[in-house]
Structure formats: structure tokens, C-alpha cells
Please model this.
Amino acid sequence: MAGTSRSEGRTGLLNGLAAYGMWGLVPLFWPLLKPAGATEILAHRMVWSLAFVAAALLVVRRWAWAGELLRQPRRLGLVVIAAAVITVNWGVYIWAVNSGHVVEASLGYFINPLVTIAMGVLILKERLRPVQWAAVGVGFTAVLVLTIGYGRPPWISLTLAFSFAIYGLVKKKVNLGGVESLAAETAVQFLPALAYLLWLSAHGDLTFATEGTGHAALLASTGIVTALPLVCFGAAAIRVPLSTLGLLQYLAPVFQFLLGVLYFGEDMPPARWAGFALVWLALVLLTWDALRTSRRTARALGPGSARTAGLSGTAGVSATTAASATTAASAAIAVSATTGASTVSTPSTPSAPSTPSAPEAGAAPLAKP
Model:
């Protein structure tokens, strides 16, 4: 049994690295789709993502959830809201990458945990521990420094962070598995996206049909680029502790930041470095506080009770704030990525290391870049 457990852990870790690695490297993919504009790319992503996940669900014969969802208007309305919010997230991310703002886009996923915590306080009336308050304060200072450095508020970062935080909050209420959730959201997006592509075609502006087979294949592969990291994330989430996923989530924005600076050659003046340094300090504080609280909870409750306490919240750890400190989607990226890379709704599980149930793991996101 121990060998099996170790094997499962390694499998989960590899899947987690794959998911966040793909979300982190996705800025290399979107420029390949030029001369298609960001809106056309976004529309193709919606259309082909639905085709991909629908085929996957047909293979595994998982359709019972769809009938249940259609009989619950409130949940269906939340899916529509989630689809609208993630559309904004995906669109802004694709535009940012293809317009030379990869570094600013990566900042959005760095500050997403801070925004999620702030929303927990303002909307859910949650209480923060002193270290969490300190982290939020440092994060707010970082935004001010970056505003001075950019000469404007970092609106790309803030849009990505807030849209993904709202998306996570809504997904938490919907409580659908990752693939099912993506199928429901892209089903909502499908008709408007298809209508836009047909409109482009009627005006002779659709690059899918005019730029060759290779370009068309790349646009069609946006469905795989969206869904594959989500599948890997789901496989990781049921095999490794949330604390491990929480650390892995930072791989995506780190990769994006490094790509922006080293590969795309974006400028990093001193004020921008100072702002990023403050954000990283805030994340260190959050991570340290979450891990410390996790250890205290585990010691107080004992090995056999840690998981139960983690799921019930009896340790007094705020579900949203703890999850935002130690687990991703945004992701995913998502699976959005992050970036339009799939992504992360905040699970309802506190920061105590535990293995979430399958629905919780699937719902978590994907920082969908």
C-alpha cells in the first residue's frame, strides 16, 4: 500500500507540474495564431474547447450532470455568469500576450490570491489573521508602486486578477467537476462565438479559411490547449495535498514572468521591479502563514482527524482565504491560465493538507490563462 501511495503521489506531482507548466508556457502559443486577432482567437477557443470536451464526455459517457444542471435555474444562471467572466479573462489575457504585455499579465496571476482574500473580507465578511492582513497591505502598496511605475494603474493585471477571483467565487457555488464545468461554460459561449466567426467570414476577415491548413489547425488546437492542462490538474488534485498544489500554482506566473522578460524582452524599469518584489513578499507571507496554520491544525487534531477538520473548517481557517493562499485558479491558469489557461475556482477546503474530493478538485481552476 505504501508503494502504491508513493506511486500515486508521483503521478499527481507530475500531473501538477504538467498542468502548471503548460499554463506557464502558454504565452508562447498565442502569438503563433497571428494574423488572427485576439477576438477571433477567443471565439475559436470557445468553439473548439466545447468540441474537445464534448468528445471527451462522450467517450467516458458522463452526461447525467447536464440534465441535473438544466433542472436547476439558479446553478444554470451561475454557469452563465462564470462563462461571461471567464470570457473577459481569456480575452484580456490573449490580447495582452499578443500585444507585448506578458509581464503585466503574469502579475495578474501573482496578485490573484490577494484579490481573492480581499473579496473574502468584503463580500463574505471573513476574518483575516494578522499575517494575512499584512500580506494584503503589502499587495496594495505594490499596486500603488506599479501604478507610479507604469504611469497608469496596471489595468491588465487587475482585470485578470479580479475576473479570475470572481470566476472562482461563482464556480465554488456551482460545484461542477472541471471537465463538466468547462463543457457547460463553453456551451454558453458557443453560439455567440460561432456567430462572430460567421460574421467575420461573411466580411472576408476570417483568417481560419485564408491563412492555410497549418494556421487552421493551430486555431482548432486551442480546444486542446484549454482542456489538456485542466485534465492534468484534475489528476493532480485528487492525488497530492492542497498545500503542494498551492506551491505549484506559482509556477505558471513565474514561467510567464520569465518569458516576458527573457524571451519577449519586455522592459523592467526599477519601479516595476520594486512592485513585483512587494507582490512576491506578500505571497511569501501568505504561503508561510498557510503552511504554519496547516501544521498547527495537523498537530492539534492528529493524523486521523486532519482531513475531517480540513473539510469541515473546524480549525477556524477561512475557507476562501486559506485556499487562495495555498491553492490555485485562476489557475488555471485556467485552466486558463492562466492565461486564458483553464483554471482555478477556490475550493471550499481550508489550507490543511488534504486530498480533495473529485468534484472539488475538478472545480478548482484553473488559473485559466
Q: What stands out?
A: The CA atoms of residues 111 and 161 lie 6 Å apart. Residues 305-367 have pLDDT under 50 and may be disordered. The two ends are 37 Å apart (CA to CA).
